[in-house]
Amino acid sequence: MNGSLARLVFPALRWRRQSFDHEQAKIDAALAAGVGGFIIFGGTRETVTALTGELRRQAGRPLLIGADVERGVAQQVQGLTELPPPAALGYLDDLEATRGCGVITASEARSVGITWAFAPVCDLDLEPKNPIVQTRSFGADPVRVGEQAAVWIRALQEHGVLGCAKHYPGHGRTTRDSHETLPRVSTSAAELQQVDVAPFEYAIRAGVASVMSAFVAFPGWDPSGRAASFSPEILGYLRGTLNFAGLVVTDALIMAGASAAQPVPAATVVAVAAGCDVLLYPEDFRGVIAALDRAVGSEIPTARADEALARYTDAVETWTAGADQGLPDLAAHGAFADGLADRAVHVLRGEAPALGAPLAVSIVDDDVGGPYAVGPREVFIQTLRDAGVPVAQRATGDAQRIVLVYAEPRSWKGRADLGARTMAQLRRLAADARLVILFAHPRLARQIPGRAPVVGCWHGQPLMQRAAARWVLGRIR
Hints:
Elements: E1 9-10, E2 12-14, H1 24-33, E3 37-41, H2 45-59, E4 64-67, H3 86-92, H4 95-111, E5 116-117, H5 142-158, E6 164-168, H6 189-196, H7 198-205, E7 210-213, H8 232-240, E8 247-249, H9 264-274, E9 279-280, H10 285-295, H11 302-319, H12 330-344, E10 346-349, E11 359-365, H13 379-386, E12 391-392, E13 400-407, H14 420-429, E14 435-440, E15 454-456, H15 462-473
Parallel strand pairs: 1-9, 2-3, 3-4, 4-5, 6-7, 7-8, 11-12, 11-13, 13-14, 14-15
Antiparallel strand pairs: 10-15
Helix pairs in contact: 3-12, 4-5, 4-12, 5-7, 9-10, 12-15, 13-15
């Protein structure tokens, strides 16, 4: 075997307190250990560009640097372009628009030194109780999801960034979140292969460079009850039947689904032996590297170790070559995104009301709590005020109440529907509301009490708040 399996390991770097400085000791140790790259969470254009440049300079060798950018690079990097969630693109069913999103994502990622996008989601939105997929999916139809994913992947990779189809063989049927447990899907192998795997076939035909496996068990396919990432049967189908020759990667190893059967270092040995080539986001990267190197020649056959290293080397050489494409046209990208967002806003219940100023806006936030802070919630109100519309927080006198409901799929949230506290607030507020705006999956509209019209806006990101405000401005008489 040629060298350590450290190249297969990708630690995470998180922006905290306006800086990556607190990660320097981890960076030093990880590069000294020989890791293959990093995953970046958060930052600004300036700090991420500086970080990725310094990582490569300090390494003295090519690195793959990835990020979760399902809704554009601004999902992680402030100052870049937010794009609508995949569910909104699936609703629009405009492949040229989706292609534009792939181009924008790639050009902006490259501009800050990110070369690997952990997207698109190829999971199907099949299970209303699924707490983690929802609006991250292009939809429920395998053909539509496959076509959307394929066009996004081609656009992304033609502009110099690896794509990653996730979460094979599909996270869409789960009722639990693999961040907090190991979900089990009892569907038969034949149905999974015919339906859930179909979008991944589209992605593979489009040339996707990597596929992320799910920390989900499919006992109807692999009776051992192992998660897909640890299953030679399920990963073997990806290689043997679907003829996928690129990188197979795990999901984040901090997730409970990764360590459900054994500690993470031991789990990574099983993952590589089963067919995974890259191990994402281990907390104890030193322990993982030591476990992997000890296992070569025993639990991990030497040929399997060499194959994984060769795939990594091929990817890092392929996707770090080529000139940078220069600074993206952020004004044009923003206008494109706003246009898509405006098209994605639509009435879910009732008739679009005529509105009159002054307005009173009440916020019901189903996403507070959990390990991560919610995004900004004041953008909708500020957009109205910037347009000269008086907005109060309380409905007094002749003010017309608009209720904003935020409910996104979030890691460790653990449920797909509106919670009890949210429902109690809505019973109080929705009765006399003139309008309810739902920043969530459209199916949650059926939970909203009262008879007020409901407008669907998909996600609480600033992009969609501004689009909702523009829609409201168009209804003010």
